[in-house]
Design brief:
Elements (H helix, E strand, L loop, with lengths): L3 H16 L4 E4 L1 H4 L3 H13 L15 E6 L2 E10 L17 E8 L4
Parallel strand pairs: 1-4
Antiparallel strand pairs: 2-3, 3-4
Pfam families: DUF3768
């Protein structure tokens, strides 16, 4: 069972990942090098991801995932910063004090 903060964080992460609203989306140079069409496909796959299990989401926050695109393993992950993006958020479950950053990267860039 996950605590109330984890449940709230998961809901915020799901909303941000599905819509790219309420977060900043960053792609790495490796993902960008795949080309414009592939970037669009990868981002759509990240938005559609819903394969969370106890093995890949042990804290229940829906903050990390892995997809495959044209034989490339692609990771995505959320980080939580304060609103100035200078340090970690004091409360990731509170959007009023948290800047969510979704990073999409090739697995070998992790």
């Amino acid at each position: 069972m996950h605590d109330a903060d984890a449940i709230e964080i998961a809901a915020l992460n799901d909303q941000a990942r599905r819509t790219f609203a309420g977060c900043r989306v960053m792609i790495t140079q490796g993902v960008q090098a795949l080309g414009e069409a592939s970037v669009a496909d990868v981002l759509q796959a990240v938005q559609n991801f819903d394969a969370f299990t106890a093995d890949n989401d042990p804290y229940g926050e829906h903050d990390f995932g892995q997809i495959t695109h044209q034989a490339h393993s692609v990771f995505w992950k959320f980080d939580y910063y304060d609103l100035d993006l200078t340090m970690h958020s004091p409360a990731p479950s509170d959007p009023a004090v948290t800047a969510r950053v979704l990073t999409v990267m090739l697995a070998d860039e992790y």
